[in-house]
Amino acid sequence: MPHIAVRLAIAAAASAALLASVADASAAVRHGSGLHDARYCEILALKGSPPAASVTVWNTIGLNKCPDAQWRKFDAGDLAKELGATLVILNGPRHFLMDSATAVTGRVRAFHGMRMRKVATIPLKSAADLARMTYTDRTIKRTNTWRWKKGRTVFELVAPGGDTYVMQSYAQILDPKLTIGKLGGLGRRLTLPDGWRYRTRRLRHPLVLGAKGKATVLQDDLQNTYQLATTTRHGKRSRHNVNVKGTSKSVPPATPGTVEDRGALTGTPFGKGTMVLMGNLANGRLTATFRLTFKRGSIIGTTSMPYTFSGNEIDFQGFSRFTGGTGAFRGIRSGDLATHDHNTIDGQNGVLSVVGSATY
Q1: Are residues 224 and 167 in contact, defined by beta-carbon separation less than 8 angstroms?
Q2: How is 31-72 classified by DSSP, letter by letter?
């Protein structure tokens, strides 16, 4: 069976793609109303393996309220055998937060008496599609319109640089007792990255949030799903030389068996900022993801660095890549950035450098 992170990643992608365009002869544009706090569940069926893998998403919305007694009887392993799937994931319960929606959906079928509608088919072309990172953008194929009424309270994430994301659904997967009444205080429970904020806002005007072919979404650490609503970046993209230096220290990792470093950075073209790196040491190599936070926005990326020991010191030398960002750095991309990190074995005296170029 795939690792738990793989199962969570597929669930995240499927929840993000909810009510996406479907490749189905019975697909049709449908309008749904009365969706605010409407409960739903999903069955996700994975077939094949990347680059020829796909996930079919079946959803109860508009057909039933996913009765708890019936939902608890489902067994993912048995369903996988019935459907001839590599893996089945039971994704729910969840609750919508918009008032109404227009989207493309497909045919209806019953799973042991529970009717569900086909709402998406998601291709998984690489192992990267299976990587799950909270508070990290995913761009998915979707054509839909969400609508919130005037006076409705919305729940938002504000990223470094000012980009905003609106919560489209909350999950009762990790916290079965989470309700709409508790969302106002959710910010105190979330483990937000540096520079991120959670806020509530009462709408003075109706809110319409659309996606024409693609949508940018993310999930928090409770698997609540948000769609990107506003961005702050303007102007043409251009190439910038990167020459960043910094210091770092190892801290107790959030995930056992991994390494986590935090530190301070400065240099061209970003100025002063902070760094969080999380990864694994195996076979003489550090493989990790990182998040850099600056005044004008944040940057995420990956790094791969072989390492060697000399006495009480450890030396890492390899490459990093910028893969996305918020604020002024939304859409940032880079080639290989030469990366060097020298530290003591206790991880408390890291000195690092990153050199290359990036476009944003």
Answers
A1: yes
A2: EEE--TT-EEEEEEEEES-TTSEEEEEEE-TTT----HHHHT
Contact 298, 280 (CB under 8 A): no
C-alpha to C-alpha distances, 169 to 101, 288, 347, nearest whole angstrom: 13, 30, 40
Radius of gyration of the chain (CA): 22
Q: What is the pLDDT along the chain (360 residues), one digit of tens a residue?
A: 344 445 545 555 555 555 444 445 556 777 789 999 999 999 999 999 888 888 898 999 999 999 999 999 999 999 999 999 999 999 999 999 999 998 777 899 999 999 999 987 878 876 656 666 799 998 877 778 999 999 999 999 999 999 999 999 999 999 999 999 999 999 999 999 999 999 999 999 999 999 888 889 999 999 999 999 999 999 999 999 999 999 999 999 988 999 999 999 999 999 999 999 999 999 999 999 999 999 999 999 999 999 999 999 999 999 999 999 999 999 999 999 999 999 999 999 999 999 999 999
Both tokens of 327, joined, read 């604020």
What b-and-e string marks burial along 291-326, b requiring 16 or more CB atoms within 10 Å of the CB? Answer: bbbbebbbbbbbbbbeeeeeeeebebebbbbbbbbb
What are phi and psi for residue 15, nearest 5 degrees? Answer: -65, -35
End-to-end CA distance of the chain: 39
DSSP 274-292: EEEEEEEEETTEEEEEEEE
Count of all residues that appear for the chain in the document: 360
Please count the other Cβ atoms lying within 10 Å of the Cβ belonging to residue 331.
Answer: 13
56, 60, 63, 65 alpha-carbon torsion, rounded to 10°: 170
- Could you write out the DSSP letters of every residue in 99-132? SEEEEEE--EEEETTEEEEEEEEEEE-SGGGG--
* Cis preceding-peptide flag for 51 (omega within 30 of 0): yes
